[in-house]
């Protein structure tokens, strides 16, 4: 026990310990094909494609302003487009202005090519991204 924790009474001498719950597998019939559109995460009006200038811009809207998955959602959108579009296209993924409490930080992470490349080299994160993309 540290001096600090005992001084302010943070030591729990009889903690309640819970067992980890089993992860639940979501069945395909439980998934709705249009869920992202229904939640307005991705809307056609917030997607700009400029074929002449080889540019695609997507604004996405997290379901809540403090969504902890915003960066992952943006990364999944970026990966899907990179895998689907010809290499000539530059892809820009951003949070819809005013829709997230950490909008600037999320957009900065999604625009950082080195960070995105490092994320795709992380086998655990790549597995999650691939699982997200396999749902559609």
UniProtKB/TrEMBL annotation:
GO terms for biological process: chromosome segregation; protein maturation. It holds the Pfam family FeS_assembly_P. The keyword Hydrolase does not apply. Keywords: Chromosome partition. InterPro entries: FSCA_dom_sf, MIP18, MIP18-like. The keyword Ubl conjugation does not apply. GO terms for cellular component: cytosolic [4Fe-4S] assembly targeting complex. Residues 38-95 form the MIP18 family-like domain. Belongs to the MIP18 family. This is MIP18 family-like domain-containing protein. It comes from Trichoplax adhaerens.
């Amino acid at each position: 026990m540290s001096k600090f924790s005992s001084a302010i009474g943070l030591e729990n001498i009889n903690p309640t310990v819970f067992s980890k719950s089993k992860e639940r597998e979501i069945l395909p019939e439980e998934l709705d094909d249009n869920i992202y559109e229904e939640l307005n995460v991705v809307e056609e009006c917030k997607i700009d494609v400029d074929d002449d200038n080889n540019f695609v811009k997507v604004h996405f809207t997290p379901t809540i302003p403090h969504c902890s998955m915003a960066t992952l959602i943006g990364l999944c959108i970026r990966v899907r487009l990179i895998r689907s579009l010809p290499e000539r296209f530059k892809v820009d993924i951003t949070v819809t202005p005013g829709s997230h409490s950490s909008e600037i930080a999320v957009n900065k992470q999604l625009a950082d090519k080195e960070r995105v490349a490092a994320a795709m080299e992380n086998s655990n994160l790549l597995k999650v991204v691939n699982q997200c993309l396999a749902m559609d």
